[in-house]
Design a protein that fits this description.
two-stranded antiparallel sheet; 2 strands; membrane; Aquaporin-like
Length: about 280
């Protein structure tokens, strides 16, 4: 066992070595573009369909936004192979699936992508149709604590789904993984849209809020007071979901033993813990 652990140490001895690879930077660019396009899809559809009333309970608006965002996730995740969500990135970094340096950089580009996507929505939407830019808003009859836990629980469910879809032991690969992610988003939107406009993604909430403020459309102070729930709720729910799945539900996977030239069954959690020594 010691010999195997020693072989894995170089990855941790040079944490900045990944910066010199093309794959690293292509994944960073993909996270930026994917998050930007995703926020553009979400905000453009929700802004026009709601006509500046994200608090209402129109089934048509709810369904339009749910399908657009969910299908957008499934499409863009399949292409980028990214997370496109700072809350998920925090969870993946905390459980060792991303290095700390890459995790921090991914979060930064995801936030910038969210702002860029919202700016694109503003630029391509005719003035008479510009309303809230698809901003996430807490329902006027919801308390702050209620809104916080709606975001927390929905992101927890989303995170468990994404972890399961990306668990190599479950062999959910290719479009199956991206579809699982997308379907989970559709479900979360249908449930939470009428309560919190369903953020479940800090980049999706922060982008339109910033562009709305900078463009002159304005964001009421009362809405800024609740904006923190779209960070704390999703990040907290995603962290808990990641830890729950990592320690309780990670499936055994098969890896190739170069010494024996055979595939051996390995517990994914144990292999990750060895890698992170």
């Amino acid at each position: 066992m010691k010999a195997q652990k020693t072989k894995m140490l170089p990855q941790q001895d040079k944490p900045l070595s990944e910066f010199r690879t093309k794959k690293f930077w292509s994944s960073i660019i993909a996270e930026y573009l994917g998050t930007g396009f995703l926020v553009y899809v979400a905000t453009s559809v929700c802004d026009v369909s709601d006509s500046n009333q994200p608090r209402n309970n129109k089934a048509s608006s709810n369904l339009e936004c749910s399908l657009a965002y969910g299908l957008g996730v499934a499409t863009l995740v399949h292409w980028t192979e990214g997370l496109l969500n700072p809350a998920l990135t925090v969870a993946f970094t905390s459980t060792g699936k991303l290095s700390l340096t890459k995790g921090v950089l991914v979060i930064i580009v995801e936030i910038l992508g969210g702002i860029s996507g919202s700016a694109l929505t503003y630029a391509l939407t005719p003035s008479p149709l510009r309303h809230s830019l698809g901003d996430t808003v807490l329902h006027e009859d919801m308390s702050t604590i209620q809104g916080l836990f709606v975001e927390f629980i929905l992101t927890l469910i989303l995170t468990l789904t994404v972890y399961a879809a990306r668990d190599p032991g479950r062999k959910c690969e290719g479009y199956h993984a991206s579809l699982a992610y997308g379907f989970a988003v559709v479900m979360c939107y249908i449930v939470g849209y009428k309560y919190t406009s369903c953020g479940i993604n800090p980049a999706r909430s922060f982008g339109p809020a910033v562009v709305r403020e900078m463009s002159g459309l304005g964001k009421p102070k009362s809405e800024w007071q609740h904006h923190w729930i779209y960070w704390i709720g999703p990040i907290g729910g995603s962290l808990l979901g990641g830890l729950i799945y990592h320690f309780l539900y990670s499936q055994p996977s098969f890896e190739y033993d170069t010494y024996k030239a055979t595939y051996t069954r390995t517990d994914y959690r144990e292999r990750e813990s060895e890698t992170n020594l």
